[in-house]
Design brief:
single chain; 161 residues; alpha+beta; Ubiquitin-like (UB roll); DNA polymerase, domain 1; 2 domains; 5 helices; 5 strands; 16% strand; binds FE2/S2 (inorganic) cluster
Length: 161
């Protein structure tokens, strides 16, 4: 066991963890942050994506101890209080959530994509979505949700300028 110190959704945590524990298990089992999903536990489905220092990563492949000192954002850290992120709003408005298992990772990847570029083309949106397997929606509604979120963010940026 080693001491792990990191920041999750803006809060510092220090805990003893074994070298075999993944970041995914650390989040779900040690911190009860169960929004991050375990779809395959081997890097194939994308459902475990979280942001590590601002970049989406598969938490099932990352040993927790390798996240020492990192700033992690999980789906629990995306809304600001009661205010949903535009990607979350758009996913609801477009009916892009069915069982919801893939949704946290879709949102994490969408938030990352739109933070870099709030006017993505179809290809960029498709690439973003393809990082996560969805067994329910057929992806069309998720694609539409990402475009809707982008337009919400452009409008907000315009209104704020
Ligand atoms: S649970 Fe990590 S990629 Fe599937
Ligand atoms: S909504 Fe069910 S897996 Fe995507």
């Amino acid at each position: 066991m080693k001491l792990l110190k990191l920041t999750i959704n803006g809060r510092e945590h220090t805990k003893a963890v074994s070298s075999s524990m993944t970041l995914l298990d650390f989040l779900r089992e040690e911190l009860n942050l169960t929004g991050t999903k375990n779809g395959c536990d081997k890097g194939a489905c994308g459902c475990c994506s979280v942001m590590v220092d601002g970049k989406p990563m598969l938490s099932c492949l990352l040993p927790a101890l390798e996240a020492e000192g990192a700033a992690i954002t999980t789906i629990e850290g995306i809304a600001k209080g009661n205010e949903l992120h535009p990607v979350q709003e758009a996913m609801i408005e477009m009916g892009a959530i069915q069982c919801g298992f893939c949704t946290p990772a879709m949102v994490i990847n969408g938030v990352h994509m739109l933070a870099k570029n709030n006017n993505p083309g179809d290809d960029e949106v498709k690439e973003c979505i393809s990082a996560t397997v969805c067994r329910c929606t057929g992806y069309n509604s998720i694609e539409k949700a990402m475009h809707l979120a982008a337009s919400k963010m452009r409008r907000a940026a315009h209104d704020g300028s």
